[in-house]
Amino acid sequence: MLLGRDRECARLDALIGQLRAGGGATLVVAGEAGVGKTSLLRYAISRADGLQVLRSRGAESEQDLPFAGLAELVRPILSHLDTLPEPQRDALAGALAIGPVVSGGRFPVCAATLRLLSAAAAGRPVLAVVDDIHWLDVASVQVLEFCAHRLGQEAVGLIMAMRPDSPGRFGSARFDTVEVAGLDGTACRSLLAATGRTISTPVAERLVAGTGGNPLALLELSASLTDAELSGLASLAEPLPVTAALRRAFAQRIRSLKPADRQLLVLAAADVKADLATLQRAAERLSLDLAGLSGAVEAGLVRLEDGQVSFTHPLLRSAAYHDAAPSERREAHRALAGSIDSGRQPVRKAWHLAAAAVGPDDGVADSLDVAARAASARNAFVTASRAYQRAAELTTDPDRIVSRWMAAGQAAHLGGDVASATRLLGRAVDLTADPCVRADAQAMLAQAAVFTAPPIRRHYELVSQADAVLPYDQPRAATLLALASGLCIMAGRFDLALETAGRATRLAGDAHGIPMLVSQAQLAHATILTGNRAAGRQLVAKILAHPAIAAPDPAMHLLRITCGQSFIWCEDHQAADDLLGPSVDHDRALGRIADLPYGLAARSELRFRIGDWSQAYSDATEAVELGMDVTAGLDLSYALVCAGRIEAATGMTKQCRAHLSRAISLARPMGAASVTAYAAAARGLLELGWANHGQAVVELARAAAVTTRHGVKDPCVIQWRPDYIEALLCVGRTSDAREQLAVLDAEAEATGSPWARAAAARCRGLLEGTPQRAMELLEEAVSLSEAAANMFEQARGRMCFAVALRRARKRGDARRVLERARSEFEILGAQSWATRAATELAALGVSAPQARRPIHVRLTPQELRVALQVAEGLTNQEVAARLFLSHKTIEVHLGHIYDKLGVHSRTGLARLITSGAALR
């Protein structure tokens, strides 16, 4: 047990015990430099007898080498690479530079790494230890974060050490964290006593207080003081300059070496992962003898292990490097660059050349450009962005400078670094006067930075740039206007969106490819939103008839999903499913996790409307979980409101409110009025389902205000108005309810919406004062809802019809209709509405049986996804690949599913789900 670290060691022992029991866990060890994080990692390794231990350590010199940290970590288990499915195996091999480069984004690499760890753990539990993760390359950090979320069912433990004040590249807040603070007074005094130097009690107390119990600071500061200072005969500085003292202490230890040996330390510090052979060649270029490192080893500054030089503490390396003159550092990098084989390590060589440059150097810039392209090919986009930035800084040709800033911005966007993308693309816009180049840069900026400024402001910027480029390139102008129209839709300015998209379409004319199709897609969206469903539907059909829409281009793929969403609004559900189903399957097959949230969320909305709520909830919650990994933008907020609406209808109050609150918190800074309206409508439905009519009116009034203000005229885009009419009627605001019904009738007539006609008929029956006429209208509403194939609307219509029958003293008919309505609510999982139906049955003197619950209420979201995939006939391996989970995780979930649903085999599970009888 480490001195004064009983609590921290107990946490590590618990994790290792969990591993031995077959479970997995992630633990972040966070603390300031010198507080003892590395010692805790060594303690964990010492307790890992019988486990497979994997190690990696971040290094500043490797931050720009894609997947360097991951390669070091998984090297001992690469023998399991052949057990991975071919696409994942190839993606990981390409990322680690042990196979050909494979495109497709970073997420196939993430999924492959998870599966590799799982395969290794099948033999023996795996303990993966990563020190200084704040200095790890971004590509490796992203992979580790992805895996860390999915280790619960695997015998894989991941322990990562980081400084709490490091840049937020790693989302440590989402993981179990042990905060390592300074040692307490007793432990500090014991540590000081162990130095063997005589320290007076008052001085010891000063040192403890001045260092905050930081063990490294205590040892280094006490070592730097004279005997007189330690005994109290000479005064200490007030206050103790701990940080400066640490730097001074390290520097003093290094300066005690011979000048040539100090130069060797600078060389080692310039590339801490360089092997001894490379360092030897670099030392010879500087006329140095690598044997001189023996003095640094004897002084406890470095260790020679595994064919490399490692500093005994990261701060020592920092002191060795930064205490040297800039010219000495450049000489070290130049020598290292000359010692590296450009054929085997071109990226490492390029970065050393860049560090050695004293001014613009096109040759070095070209090397960095090549390195950036290689990083992009391996899907390490943030690393590529940094290389493009440095290349731009070293370039002399103005046009190439701009193109490299644009490439840097685009790579940052692909890597998810929106803030950097905005800054870099803005730099490119500022540097160029060429209207066509500015147009391209503005288009990239609009897509990368759509959520960093009010969308309407971005709209006007794009329109202005479209006007500027119009005399030179009409298709470019059309593309900019199409993007501007999309921003208007996001902001809820539909009339402006219609006008802008119309202009874009006219400019695109008969041009082939993206300009024309994107312009028409935005025009179709705006046309439907503003109430002209037939014309919008025709536009969508025209887009889908174009040969280019089938191209594998990501832009075309996005357009197909957008068209699917248009079909949902138009109630052409089969056409929507024909587009959205293959799109989701396509993204799964290619491991394009970044694209899945939007497609899954759109498909969940479709499935919710056609009454397949288990599948809808599976899609929506998966979209949320994947969205948390890849985005904090509109796709995630849309997924959140989709999940929230299903939870509102099912009466899952806590989950609904949590998802909708998160959606609004994301949407509000973006100015995404559409998400705000969706969330208000869902909250209103939740309150109405539980008969909280007053609160339902408040929430639905918000939806009314947003949609009315922004001109949404198709009632199927956000289905809130019938709920508002019912809630108004329940609180006695009959006149207001009639006004809303008049609007709903007009919208239903204008759009021809089957759902709106059925809902309007139901609301009309509720408002009818004559009992006989009310029954006729409500019976008509049920018939219309059956024609619209909307089970939720059918069940609601039946419940209202049954109430009218009861009031007309037709109790037998009322009972039969109510029992069917209650059954439909239960099949859907609409618990709050089933409860209301049961209350109505009780009013008839009928004692309702215990409510039955569908599988999406009885299983966790992840169990639900597994159950639905297994019911399709997929093997555990295939389900794991589809859901980006491990085989072991699927096995564990399947056991829980069998227990909860009372089945004993895959066949029984499939029969239960496909029969629609997954209720109890």
Q: What kind of sheet is the major sheet?
A: 5 strands, parallel
What is the CATH C-level name of one domain? Answer: Alpha Beta
Principal-axes shape call = globular
Strand order of the largest sheet: 2-3-4-1-5
In what range is the share of β-strand residues? Answer: under 5%
Helix count, DSSP H or I runs of 4 or more residues: 47
Rg over CA atoms, rounded to whole Å, is 32 Å
Instruction: Using the 3D structure, state the CATH architecture of one domain.
Output: 3-Layer(aba) Sandwich
- What is the fourth-level CATH superfamily of one domain? P-loop containing nucleotide triphosphate hydrolases
Spatial gap, N to C terminus? 52 Å
Which range best describes the helical content: under 10%, 10-25%, 25-40%, 40-55%, 55-70% or over 70%? 55-70%
Oligomer: single chain
* Rounded mean pLDDT score: 87
Under CATH, the topology of one domain is which? Rossmann fold
Overall structural class, as computed from helix and strand content, comes to mainly alpha
Tell me what the structure shows:
This protein is mainly α and 920 residues long. Among the domains are: 6-179, 3-Layer(aba) Sandwich (Rossmann fold); 185-240; 253-339, Orthogonal Bundle (Arc Repressor Mutant, subunit A), CATH 1.10.10; 753-852, Serine Threonine Protein Phosphatase 5, Tetratricopeptide repeat (Alpha Horseshoe), CATH 1.25.40; 857-914, Winged helix-like DNA-binding domain superfamily/Winged helix DNA-binding domain (Arc Repressor Mutant, subunit A), CATH 1.10.10. Helix content is 67%, strand content 4%. It contains 47 helices and 7 strands. The strands form 2 sheets. The protein has a 5-stranded parallel sheet with strand order 2-3-4-1-5, sandwiched between helices. The protein has a two-stranded antiparallel ribbon with strand order 6-7. The longest helix has 18 residues, at 474-491. The mean pLDDT is 87.
